[in-house]
Structure formats: C-alpha cells, structure tokens
Amino acid sequence: MQNKLSFHQSSVSLEIIGLPDYSNNENNDQISIISQWKLTIIDKPLIEGKVEHLVPIMNAFYIYSNLLIKNEIPIYESKLIDIKADNLYIHNIVLKSSKPNVKPLILKIGNSLLTDTINCFDQLKESPKVRIKNTHLSNNIPKKFKFGLNNKEKLINFFIPPFMAICSLILFSSSFIYFYNPIEVKEKNEIINPE
Amino acid sequence: MFAISNKLNLNDIFPNKVTIWKLRNNNPLRKSYVNNNIKIDEFDALIKITVEMSRYLYPIIREILKSKEDPKNNTSVWVDFNKRFIELIKERFNSDSMKVKKLLYQAENDEIVIKSLLTLSLCISNQGYQKLRNFLFDF
Q1: Cβ-nearest to A68 among B118, B125, B138
Q2: Which terminus of chain B has fewer Cβ atoms in its 10 Å neighbourhood, N or C?
Q3: How far, rounded to the nearest angstrom, does the alpha carbon of residue A118 sit from its chain's CA centroid?
C-alpha cells in the first residue's frame, strides 16, 4: 500500500505517492521512495511524472522565479521543461515528454498560478514526511556565479572584434614600411638635387 | 506592524510603535527621512515582520496579481490597489525624488509593483524569511 501526501495552495495542488524507506527504519507515513507525483492546476491539464522529472521541474520553477524577480531575462530552457515570459503577467510553460512521438504540453499561467505552484513546491521541500533523495533542490540559486560566467563570455565577445581590428590594422600598416621610407626618399632627393 | 512584532516576540528590538516608525524613516524616499544606521537585528526583524505580513495577506496579494493577468475581467482590484498605492506614495514619499516620480508614473510602476508583489508572494513558506533575506542581499 503506497502513501499519498497532498500539498495545496489556492488553485494548485501537488500529490506525492510513494513508500517509506524501511531499510532506514522510517515511519509508515513517511515517503522516501517517490513512485509518482501529480501537479493539478485548476483549468489546466494534469501534470504527472516520476521522481526524476519532479526535481528538474521544481528547479526550473525556482530558477525562473529568481530570474523574474532579479530583473534578468526570464527564460529557462532544458530537455524537460522550458519556461519563458510572454509578458509581465503571463508565463509560457512547455513540458516535453521523454517518450517519443508525444507532443509537448504547452501551458500558459499567470503570476498567481506561478506563485501557487512555487508555494506548493516549498511545502513539499519543507515537509518532514517527504524526503527527496540525491537531489540538489536550489531555492536560492547562485545565479551570480552562473551569470558571472556568461558575462565573462559576453565580455570576451565584446572585446575580441575591436582587438582583432586593431591587430589587423597594425599588421596591414606595417607592410607599408617596405614600400615607403621617408628618410630614404629624402636622401635620394638630396643626391639628385645637391643644392 | 506592532501587533505582528509582538506576535513574533520581537519586543526586545521593537519595544514600542515609535521604534518601528523611526526604522521606517530610514527609507531615503520618505519625506521624513532620517539617516540612522540600521542594525542587523533590526534589519532581520523587519524581514520577519514583512514575511509574516505577506503570509497573512497572501490571498489579497494573489487576487491583485490575478486581476492584472486578464485585463478584460475583474480589473477593479488592480485599479483600487494601484490608486491606494499612489495615494500613499504621494502622501508619505518625497515626490521631488526621481525614484518616487518613477513610482508615480503609471507605465513604469506596473513592473515595480508586480515584481514586489511576486517577491512577497514567494516568501510565505516557513523558509520565507531566508528567501526574502537572500532576495534583498542579491538585489
């Protein structure tokens, strides 16, 4: 018999189905081996999957919300889920199935549903009854580090073209040394016109 | 705010309403701005109060956010909120400041207001205090 735990926040509910890890002497009502999860958003299709999908989806929502708040470009793309902002109020979610020939599920949610969903994930993370193994759920993602690397790349891309231009100008102009030497020309003129 | 600070056992930091009022005056956008050095425990206490208030006000915050999503339906909540927000800013903030003018300018204040509401609505969990603290430090 599997355990079921539900987390609710306004229009969103998250259901976790699984078993306790008896090898760790866990209580019967604990869930450590998640077999299935279901995310229900009112007026939207049901989202469900296995534990290996849950963590990337949670992370996607956390990263996206961080980007949204920190005035960075709110786009998150991965093999499993894409989230991007249509505008300031509507967010476009594309859930890609791992099975072949299954069309991606496209959802449009507003800020209210986005916050409900993230608050459901928060409840799951904070629940003492559910343990998500081997995961790196990032609520406070070190974005600065990640974007620092991107910025460094951008910085290099910014400086390379003018640097290359200067180098090629130097190279190009140095070739004129062989064609024109003002001192030599002056000396030649002096020999021709000794006065 | 004082009632919430009592509820959170912050009486040592905020023994009365005046201490909270003085702290609020640290905001340079306010008309009654006073430059006092804010202590870390006061800063933390203000975050705790903000998180508790947003937890309490979440249904209203959510309704305001929702009313802006579909402009065809139920925009009255957003209009009322924005009207009150602007009234408060005009009443309490220094309207000569460029930042305050931005807040009063309709086209620009939408984004600021929505992002502020989103930040508050994402900090209602038990770890909301830590979340809001991190958001503020990263700001």
Answers
A1: B118
A2: C
A3: 16
Domain membership of residue B68 as a residue range = 2-138
Considering the domain architecture, whether residues A104 and A174 belong to the same structural domain is answered as no
Chain B contact present for A68, CB below 8 A: yes
Do B121 and A68 contact (CB within 8 A), yes or no? no
- Three-state secondary structure call for residue B14: coil
Query: Does A110 contact B138 at a Cβ distance shorter than 8 Å?
Result: no
Question: How do beta strands A90-95 and A105-110 pair?
Answer: antiparallel
Per-residue pLDDT of A140-168, as tens digits, reads 444 443 444 445 556 666 666 776 677 66
Q: Global pTM?
A: 0.77
What is the C-alpha separation between B3 and B9, in angstroms, rounded? 10
Task: Tell me, yes or no, whether A19 and A104 share the same domain.
Answer: yes
Compare CB distances from B114 to A65, A111, A118 and report the shortest one's residue.
A111
Query: How many structural domains compose chain B?
Result: 1
Torsion of CA A94, A135, A125, A88, to 10 degrees: -30
Residues B87-100: tens digit of each pLDDT: 999 999 998 998 88
* Among A residues 111-150, those touching chain B with beta carbons less than 8 Å apart: 111-112, 114-116, 118-119, 122-123, 125-126, 139-140, 143-144
pLDDT in tens, A84-105: 998 888 999 999 987 888 889 9
Indicate if A83 and A161 belong to the same structural domain.
no
